């Protein structure tokens, strides 16, 4: 081969190599913002306040996340949900913060929240209007809105699915993904198409989290059924992309203390986003004890990011388990039934060698049990309650 032939051959090989690299990259991860290496933690306005929001209460919430110590535990996102913008865009087509409730604008709010060491999230919709129909959605304005959010310093976008044009989420959502990637500021992208088109199967290319369910409400049935629907997709969760069974209701008053402990335990072990949905400015001691449990939070934030699976169901009794770093296993023993019942977690169900001797830490009681367990561990549980352990083989 002459010099020229050789150069042509090398060029062709380079082109083919580059093409395959590009294809592999876009197939693997269109969204490459390096965010969400553990599930996001913070607060969102919707569950407690709905549309009843303004800049004063958002600032007070940011203050409260710091003064309660919750921000130190990882709750850093302050996420404004629906209803923050005027119904009409300005003459250039930009979103306009609602003058009556956010007179200082969102940029000023972002600056305030950042000055506290926190991050600010906003909300939009892959449709013509948001779900409240009180503000525009971003469909057809993706690049412009992503640029606006980036210019304000926004750190998180929840992207809802109301009032769309009937096209598939898998067509509408990636438009915003690309817009966010081009906007020049890393923004956590929370895909919220309610689980309609199995987003777990495509979400990793598109968002940092994807809702697997319809909206949660503050009842036991709503909460537990969302945990169930979300569990189906456990194998898809991984650092950078999480299944999202919706935000927390702990502290909003619709469930008992035991039920809220189940709620928080299942969200933690399922590697769900931990987004508080109560009034942070006015939390009871009981609510604080639940959401500030550092050992339960540590299970959620474990670097491996394995989502729990239901490894055994016997009637109303269930075992949920997830491998953790350090050869440990997190396990939830759950009684969903109406009466007190005893529940057993077996080593061969939860991925431990049946012969291994295990140290069990009860992470709601904050006690390492004196008994060493071989083969199984049993707890007797009241109705709608659970136990949560971190198990560590010691021999
Ligand atoms: C604070 O919470 C209590 C219930 O825990 C409620 O009765 C009270 O109205 C709340 N206060 C405000 C200002 O929301
Ligand atoms: C639990 O393990 C013990 C031995 O450590 C065994 O005697 C018992 O039958 C086991 N129980 C269950 C429910 O597997």
From TrEMBL:
Keyword Disulfide bond: yes
Signal found in the keyword field: yes
Class of enzymatic activity (EC top level): hydrolase
Record InterPro entries: Aldolase_TIM, GH, Glyco_hydro_27, Glyco_hydro_27/36_CS, Glyco_hydro_b, Melibiase_C
Entries under Pfam families matching the protein: Melibiase_2 (PF16499), Melibiase_C (PF17801)
GO annotation, biological process: carbohydrate metabolic process
Reactions catalysed according to its record: Hydrolysis of terminal, non-reducing alpha-D-galactose residues in alpha-D-galactosides, including galactose oligosaccharides, galactomannans and galactolipids
EC nos: 3.2.1.22
Signal peptide as annotated in the record: 1-24
GO MF entries: alpha-galactosidase activity
Lineage: superkingdom: Eukaryota
Keyword terms of this UniProt record: Disulfide bond, Glycosidase, Hydrolase, Signal
Domain Alpha galactosidase C-terminal as annotated: residue spans: 314-391
PANTHER family for the chain: ALPHA-GALACTOSIDASE 1, ALPHA-GALACTOSIDASE/ALPHA-N-ACETYLGALACTOSAMINIDASE
Protein family (similarity comment): Belongs to the glycosyl hydrolase 27 family.
Function: May regulate leaf (and possibly other organ) development by functioning in cell wall loosening and cell wall expansion.
Protein name: Alpha-galactosidase
